[in-house]
Amino acid sequence: MKRIYITGMSGTGKSSVIRNLLDKGYAAIDTDDGDWKEISISEGGSEWILREDQIRSVIAKCRKSSIFISGCCSNQANLYPLFDYIVLLSASLETILNRVAERTSNPYGKTSEERNEIIWNYENIQPLLQENVHFELNTEVMTTEEITMLLIELSDNDE
Q: In a 10 Å sphere around its CB, with 0-12 CB exposed, 13-18 middle and 19+ buried, how is residue 136 labelled?
């Protein structure tokens, strides 16, 4: 069984994929929900980071089945060694901005400040994510169901 981390910019479909995996009975966590992140305050300001101890704990407990965890935080690379695969969901900036403007499941991305942050992240963080992933899946050409089935197949891979 595999541990798979799903990352990507806001609006790329991480939450939709996690919901689909949950609906199919898989162990899956969206770190945007619940108590998986905390605020980190530094001279440069504040940001949400993953609670590494909680992620490590849930992974340690999940030994007999695959687990899928999604998120996008500055400290996620600290956890990469715990995962068999890192998968990046991507889309064009135009698609991402349209999705966050239209979605009702998450309020992030509605203000001009948040939209500017998304643009900055897309231009500066996305390239860094692309350097450290096993797979990049374009959510403009693949459906949530296709991505989910690919991830399930990957989790069943015994290599």
A: middle
